[in-house]
Amino acid sequence: MTQGTPPARTDGGKLPPFDPSVPNPARMWNYWLGGKDNFAADRQAAERVLEAMPSLPLIARAARLFLIDAVHQLATEHGIRQFLDIGTGLPTADNTHDVAQRAAPESKIVYVDYDPVVLTHAQALLTSSPEGQTDYIQADLRDTDTILKGAARILDFTRPVAILLIAVLHFIPDADDPYAVVARLTDAVPSGSYLVIAHAAADIAPEASQVARFFTGLDLLPPGLVPINQWALTGHIDATTGALVGYSAIARKP
Ligand SMILES: C[S@@+](CC[C@H](N)C(=O)[O-])C[C@H]1O[C@@H](n2cnc3c(N)ncnc32)[C@H](O)[C@@H]1O
Q: I need a surface site. Which of 40, 124, 126, 222 has the fewest CB within 10 A?
């Protein structure tokens, strides 16, 4: 399914159900980003989290700015025309296809999220320039077979692909081996592909961080694995702001 028809749920009910009375990460993130696609339960839970982590709206905004910068850089400087955006979240102002196709209209983008709320909004993700293409898959990040098979409907896996994992890996518990999940994805793309990660973290020493392990065997682009506020290249965020506890990096598969 590409532009036009709403995406259908294909998981046989295994993925999380829709319940507006239960706080939901995608809708809470939307609230921190200043969006309107959230319910009272999401807003209340988001406010409670803010009491413990008041910088979360800044982190959410910084993650979006990082995504925009990374996609723009990959499209304009590295010739990337295929993007696999996993843990997409609710549509916002500058979605991956907006940024990629502004730079290169022929770009193809596949979005993946396991949340039924994102599915209901996916129509907004499926607009595309006439030259390009977009698609949406409802799937769990851990189910890489479903993701790769679905993405192959429009992506050509013999050509470079940028895999985007923005603020989603922290949802995968260690018991589910997030490193193996990421390795299955990077193994499936050819040399010249890219891995882009923004990841919440509990410490602020990049070299000590376990986040670096996601990039094993890949070449980090400058400035390397850095606290996410250092990626505020667009100048929307004060890079001296403290407590932006997250890392970001772009790496190339050699
Ligand atoms: C914090 S939001 C980030 C959204 C977007 N990437 C951004 O940076 O604005 C995390 C998203 O990942 C999705 N997500 C969480 N765990 C997931 C999983 N195991 N598989 C697929 N999507 C997942 C959530 O539904 C949510 O939409």
A: 222
H helices within the chain, ranges in order? 25-32, 40-52, 56-77, 96-103, 116-121, 144-151, 178-187
CA of 25: how far to CAs of 45, 103, 209, in Å?
10, 30, 24
Q: How far is the CA of 29 from the centre of ligand 1 (A)?
A: 9
135-168 tens-digit pLDDT: 999 999 999 999 999 999 999 999 999 999 999 9
| Residue at token pair 């993700």 | 125
Pair of tokens at residue 108? 């193809």
Report CA(202)–ligand 1 centroid distance (Å): 19
Q: What is the Å distance from ligand 1's center to 247 Cα?
A: 16
Ligand 1 atom closest to residue 142's alpha carbon, by position in its atom list: 19
C-alpha neighbours within 13 Å on the C-beta side of residue 205: 2
- To 10 degrees, what angle do helices 40-52 and 25-32 make? 70
What's the Cα-to-Cα distance from 204 to each of 141, 178, 201, 244, 248, rounded to whole Å? Answer: 26, 20, 7, 9, 12
pTM score, whole prediction: 0.90
Q: Hey, whose CA ends up nearest to atom 8 of ligand 1?
A: 166
